[in-house]
């Protein structure tokens, strides 16, 4: 964007050119101003300053020259404005294309966000299912542990009972064996006493041991 110039700046630039012995032309004046401002504005201000500096009784030729310069200045301003308008039109088209691109990206981002939201909901639902299954598995494991513990306790009790039964059986066998020995000794003693009194001969203890108490 061109910087704005005013009459004071143009008047000072004209004075500087004249003090340096240079001809005050539009190009020289524009250069002295650092190429600031548009040519149409510069021509307008220069014409106003020159009209102010000239006497009131300007000649017809001067007025005609001014009109010609003013017409050229307006034409130059129109061309510059057309160039500016063309640049603005191009910028508008560029912005329109960029806006379409951004709208497309916004739509794609919205669709992606929707898909991500659905995926998030599905993942949360799946996680809830896994949590419920895990809870059921933990309950089943606790129940299985309880049943296993009960079975172990029952097995231990049965083993203890079996151990007691085995011990009782062993003791019963030993007692029966002792009773059998006592019975054999008693018969031997009875037979010995019977032999002394003329009764049949006594059976020896060795023979008696071959008989069971039930068969005696």
The total strand number stands at 0
Structural class: mainly alpha
Instruction: Tell me roughly what share of residues is in helical segments.
Output: over 70%
Largest sheet: none
Outline, from the CA principal axes? rod-shaped
Q: Mind telling me the C-alpha Rg?
A: 67 Å
Q: If you average the pLDDT, what whole number results?
A: 81
Runs with pLDDT <50, length 5+?
A: 211-216
The number of helical segments is: 5
Tell me the distance between the termini: 143 Å
Beta-strand portion reads under 5%
Task: Provide an overview of this structure.
The protein has 216 residues and is an all-alpha fold. The chain has a domain at 7-105. It has helices spanning 7-19, 26-32, 39-53, 60-196, 205-209. It is rod-shaped and about 200 Å long.
Brief digest:
With 216 residues, the chain is mainly alpha-helical.
Question: Which helices and strands occur, and which strands form pairs?
Answer:
Blueprint: H1 7-19, H2 26-32, H3 39-53, H4 60-196, H5 205-209
Helix pairs in contact: 3-4
Write a concise keyword list for the protein shown above.
216 residues; mainly alpha; 5 helices; disordered C terminus
